[in-house]
Structures are given as C-alpha cells and as structure tokens.
Amino acid sequence: MGVKGVELLKSVPTFWRLDAWPFVLAHAVNLAMLAMTCSRIVAESSVPASNSSGINSSTPLNSTIGSSSGTAASAAGVAFWGFSLPLMNTVLLPVLAVLQLLTWLGTHWSVKFSSMITMRRVKRVDEAAHVMVTPSKTTEKIGICQIDIVELRNSASGNVEMVPSFEFHKRRYLWEAGEKKWQKVAFPVGESMAFYKNSRGLLDGKAIADAAARWGINSFEVPLPTFKELYTEQCRQPFFVFQVLCVVLWSMDDYWYYSLFTLLMLLMFEGTVVLARTRNLRMLREMMGAPIVVRVYRQGAWMAMHSHHLVPGDLISVNRNKHDPDQTVPADLLLLSGKVVVSEAILTGEATPQEKVCISNRDSDEVLSLKRADDTGDRQHIVFGGTKVLQVVPSQDPQIKGGLPRPPDGGCLAMVVRNGFNTAQGRLVRTILFSSETTSAASREAGIFVVCLLCFALIASGYVLSVSWHDPKRNKGKLLLNCSMIIASVVPPELPMNLSLAVNSSLHSLARLGVFCTEPFRIPFAGKVGVCCFDKTGTLTSEDLVLEGVAGSPPSPSAQCPPPPSASSDASSAPAAEAAVEGEGAEARWVLHKPLAVGDEGVHVLVGCHGLVLLEDGVIGETMERVALESLGWTLGRGDCVAENSGARKRRIQVINRYPFASSLARMSTIVEINEAPAAARGGRGVSKFMVLAKGAPETMASRFSELPPLYEQSYKHYTRQGARVLALGYKEMAAEAMSKLKSKKREDVECNLMFAGLVVYHCPNKFESATSVRALKDSGHHLVMITGDQTLTACHVARQLGMCSRTHTLILTETAPSNFHTGSSAVGAAVEERTGGGGDDG
Fold first, then answer.
1. Better-scored residue on pLDDT, 148 or 519
2. Are 412 and 401 in contact (CB under 8 A)?
C-alpha cells in the first residue's frame, strides 16, 4: 500500500486551537492579577503617611521580600511562592509569550504535534477534512494531506461515484467504502495478456476524463518554492530560533553591538543557504525535461499531443528521435509490437543496453507481473520512463493488433501502464523530494547530550538564584536575566552561526565538484558516515577487459597448438577429454587456450550469445561482449546478425530469440541460426542449423549442463582466485521449427540439458586511483565494503590488491552452498573457507 497508517482529522477553529485559547486564558488571568495588584498599590499609596510610618507586627515576613521600607513592603501586597505579585506577573508575561511562540513553532517542527494542536481526530470519512499519513518506509516523511472528492466511473456498474481521495508524496489514494480502508490507486498492471492485446486505447471523452481524474496527468513537475517561503522555513528552524532568543537576551544585557552583528550575520548566512537550495531545486526541475510531442491513438485515430497529457490506457508510438538522441521515454510503457533497445543507465547505473520485446508471443491467459521478486521476466516487455531509446525495430506481423492502424511514424506500438510520479523515473524523484528530514540515531544522541547539559545548567542557575535572590543589593530583573543566560549557554551561542557558515561553505565546495544538495541540513550528517560501499566493475576496476582465452574447450582443429601436458587419469574419460590439462591432483586444471585457438562451440557461444546493439555511431553494450567479438574477428551487422570477418567458412549467426541476462539467474541465452558455407560448397547453398547458446556464472550454470566434466570446479576457482572474470559456456542443437515457435519457447525449456563448451576468462585491471582512494579511506577509520555481482573469489582478489583486506584467509558465508554440481543438493548456511593467499575481509 505504501503507507503504514492513516488518521482522519478535522481542522479546529483558530481560537479553539491548543496554541491559542490556553494562552489567551493565561494572559487574561495574569493581566487581571496584575491589574488587581496595581490597584492595591494605588489605593495603599493614598493612605496618610502617618499610618504607614512603621511596619505592622502582623505583616507577614514574606511580604517584605525585595523591599527596604515598610511602605514599599505594604505596596508589594501578598507574597506568592517567594515572589511579590507585581514581579511574578511581570515575569509571567515573557514566559507565556515564549511558551506560546514555541508551541506555534512546534506545529511547524513536528507533523504529529501539529495534528494534536491544530486538529482533532474523527472516526468517519465524511467528517474529516484532512488525513495524517504515516509512510511504511522510515526514510519518508510523515505528512498531513487534504481530502478531495473526485468523480470516478465504477468499472462494474458504469455509474459515476463521488470518491474521497488524497495525494501523499505525489501518489493518489482512494477510499474503498466496501473495505473501509484507503487504497493506493491501481494502475493497469497485473492484468492478463489478453487484456493488453485486445486494448484499443481510450475511445471517448468520458474514458479520457475518468483516466485523468483517477491517475492525473503525466507530469514530473517539481514544486519550486519562492525565496520568501524557503527563507521563512529556514527562519523557523530550531537553531535559528534559539539564536534569536539568545540575541534578545544579550540585547537586554546591553550587548547591543554584538547582538546586532550576530543577528545580521545569521540572516545573511541563512539567505545564502536559501539561494543555494533554490538553485539546486531549479536544476533538479530542469533535469526532468520538458514535455515532448508523441503520437497517441485516441478515439479511433492517431494524433499528436504533448506527453504530459498521457494517461494509463493510451496507445502510443515508441520511436527514436534522430534530432534529439537524448530524449527520454515519457512514461512506463508495455510493448505490444516490435522490439526496442533502450539504455536504463539513468535508473540502474548500468551502461549495458536492454532489449525490450513485445508480448505477442505470450499466452493470453498469462498475467503481467512487474515485481522483481516474482522474476517472471515480464520486465523485458516494459519500456520504463526516463530511459533512452537506442534502436527501434517495428513489427511486420499483422496479427498483433488486428485492424488497428500502424503508427504513422513507423514506431513500435506500446500501451501506457504508469504515468507521472508512479513511473520508474518518478520513484527516483520522489525519493529525492520526500525523504525523511531527520536521522533518528543522531537526534537521539544529540538530545541525550543536550538534556545532560541542561540538567547541570538548571542546577547552576537554581543555585545562583537561591543564593542571590535574598541579596537586597541585587537587581531581581538582572538576576533573572543572568539565570536565563546560564540556561541558554547549554548550546554555545556561536554554534548555529558557525554551523550555517560551514554548511554554506560546503554547499559551494560541492557545487564546484558537480554535487548538488537539495537539503543542506544533511551535510553535517556526512561526518557520521562510517561505512563506504563500492561497486567493483567500472568503479574500482577498469572497464577495459582483456579476453585471456577459453579453458576446458577442445582447441580449434585449424589452430597450431603445442601438445598438451600429461593429463590426470580421471580426466581421460570426461566429455572434455580433448581439453588440455596442467597440474596434478588437487592442483589439476584446464589449460587456457588463446582466443584464436578456441573450438567452434566456444566461438559460437562467445559471438552469438550477446546483448550488443549496432547504432549509427558504433556498437554499444557489455564491454566483455564487444571484446569477444573483436578478439575473435567477428562483426555485428544489421538485424542482430554477426558474421566472420575472414576465413573460408564465412559463418553467420542470426539471433532469433534472446533471453536477456537476469541478476537473479546470473545467466543469459539466445536461440540462433548458424549459417556456414564451406569451401567445397561456396557459391551454393550453405549449411544451416539451429542452436541454443548460453553463458553465465559457473556455479549457476553447473546445474544446466547435461553432464559436467571433471576439473570444472577446480578450474574456474583457480582463475577466479587470480582476479579473473570467469563465465561458463554452454550450447545445444535444436530441431528446425517455425520462427513463431522458436520465439515463444519458455526460458526454462531452453536453458536445460546443455553441452559444456568451456570457461571463458577475462582479465580486468584495477584503476590507478583506486588503491590511493581506498588507502585514504581506510586510514581515516572507514569500514570498506565491496558490493558486486561477480564471483566471490574474484572480488576477494581485487580487495586484496587494493588493500581492503588484511587477513590471510577469506571466510565466504553463503546462504546456499552447492555441494554436488550434478544433483544440485545444497547445505543451507554453509561456511566455506578459501585460501586466497592473504585476502580475507578485515571486518
């Protein structure tokens, strides 16, 4: 649902708010008592002097406190708690004013406090005007939202209903009268494939109006407060209020120049912080981009409109803008026809292009699921908002949409399933805008520290007050002022100003480095960072991979290879018996063959199982796949086809279907058609065959092979201990079938009973500056963590080289540790200790 709890609230009239009527009453009582006392003083002052020349023996002793004559004591009136009434009334006036000010400010500091002071809770939705929403994530802010009434059409009855709703963090929630609870508005995801295949867009104005009322427009508008609003917000911060109160106390003690200078500097610093926030928010708003013109199928015809009018249910054309290659997709789209290649770097940070395919080959009764935990592969049908379109391949199949006209711009047909802040891009923006403003651990520690200091300050202030109060020479007002300053000195008066200066200086320094901060109050918390996490590939290591070769694969017959070393006896009967072996016993492993000496099966997998894309400016995609093509002498051509650059065989591999890499599966595969024209048949018809080509992590691919050769585990662990990236290669032949059947095969049926084709080994050098940066962080006391999807032993080797590890062994804790590659049996919670030559995690 996205929210943990919702409380119904109703606004209280201004006078009956808890920050109004109690203080009005207290001020009235205080002023009445002060008036009574003043009238008594006036009355007693009119008594003849002879009657008040002495002190009556019956006059209470307390009534003479603070008075040096009988007349003054009589005029002071009855004592109360040791204070004469005029003095107590005078002190209560500023005390009540400060308490009322703090209560009013508390409604701006705390949402819960504001709801308690300015509103009252109700039980019925029709009585409520606001709701207080507690988000399910602790990283988000609690908020008070206004309840609106929207007109929505009931999908079952078709009648228009008045539904209460509210918008929290740019997400709309509706009141479900039947279930008596608030529900996040449902988008058209999770429907059957038949629902999407039969969709014909929004057919009339009523459907368009209902969709706009239910989901809102497709806008990423970031609210940009004015300078006055931001400055007022800054001036309401606790530190600023505390500083102003200190300035008032100093000015009352005749420190006028110091007080005015401090106040002026504080106002100036807060102004510079507000200017920096405004600039960063404006830059964030510009990053969202302006609306673009898209082709939309509405009311039975194609039309051009701005993207901010898109609503779920619209059918649009997805195409690449050649005039503006950086143009992004305006919403989350379900691809109904064709194929699209996109870059999701802005969402995931991965530079590898992602291929999106249509749902035409999916069964009509299957249900679309976009949850990562389900891992159904349905995300390959979604073109997420904010991504860049790199390539578009329109479909030529006339059965995809029946009689629906094709897009006039030659693009791929897609359906809008999510818009606005509910898209993948919108979630990132919401994280930036609505993250929590406080850090509970830091606030708790600071609160405990301040309370401890406050206790000492109260004791000191009370001691000074008790000792000096009965001194007739001391001015009582000055004494109270000094005691107040003792309490205020718990927090050094210069701290808020110094903090503002430090934050302002940090903002400018970060801006020069290209780092922008929309919430400057987070900068001091950066000093509490104790753990630094790094990605490995591309961050600690270079992306310039080197293909070392393939191990475990028989060498190419045409390659001139030296005779293999003597092999162990148990390897003679293995499926990869022709593969060269070096070492003996536990140290035995496959010899690494150079790229040009790799056998045909290994070559086919390396060049045919890829996710590369050919654009006008060259080939883009995973670095290791581009390196494999270049090292083996193959070229990527149009239509997802790779061809051999030289040689008499003239092999060509055409990719028919691709099952992209999934991090949860740690593998990818393709169905390809391999065409070969031998020298004897040149000029005639070549040899053609269909194959499945797969590659992935060795530990996950082991269960996919029909028969695993010996030395498999020993070999891949040997190379990963040396810091290499190792992938297992597999293949199998398929019978010739219709293209539609080949494209509709399920992934599990394809990636099984594979033949082993070898272990490909890549070398990935470390960046020059990585070791220096890691050493500096480690010397400063930071705990360093590496997060990577690569093999564990490879990560341990890199960590040892960079100095992130200090122990002689690595303890690898796995949730499921495979103990038998053939049967797939496992031991949950196993701990495996690997010798890495001095590289264990030091934390």
1. 148
2. no
Taking a C-beta distance cutoff of 8 angstroms, is the pair 413, 295 a contact? no
Q: Compute the CA torsion angle 438, 442, 447, 452 (nearest 10 deg).
A: -170
Active site residue 535: yes
User: 570 in helix, strand or coil?
Assistant: helix
Q: Which of 811, 792, 716, 705 is nearest to 753 (CA)?
A: 705
Summarize pLDDT for 732-757 with one digit per residue, the tens. 988 877 777 777 788 888 888 899 98
What is the C-alpha separation between 428 and 415, in angstroms, rounded?
Answer: 22
- Signed CA dihedral, 463, 464, 470, 476: sign only: negative
- The residue count of the chain comes to 843
CA–CA gap between residue 19 and residue 834 (Å, rounded): 66
Residue 303's Cβ-count burial label (10 Å; 0-12, 13-18, 19+) is exposed
Beta bridge partners of 414: 316, 335
Residue 658's H or E segment, with its range, is strand 652-662
Based on its alpha-carbon atoms, the radius of gyration of the chain, rounded to whole angstroms, reads: 38
Q: Give the containing element (helix H, strand E) for 112.
A: helix 111-118
Estimate to the nearest angstrom the gap between the alpha carbon of 503 and the chain centroid.
24
Task: Measure the CA–CA gap between 7 and 13, rounded to whole angstroms.
Answer: 19
Q: Which listed residue (148, 535, 570, 842) is catalytic?
A: 535
pLDDT in tens, 54-85: 444 444 433 433 443 334 433 343 444 444 55
Distance CA 629, CA 622 (A): 11
Give the tokens for residue 134.
């507690």
* Residue tagged 């005039």 (tokens): 323
Residue 727, SS3 per DSSP? strand
pTM of the full structure? 0.70
Q: 440 is written with which tokens?
A: 């509970």
Residue with tokens 């032949």: 733
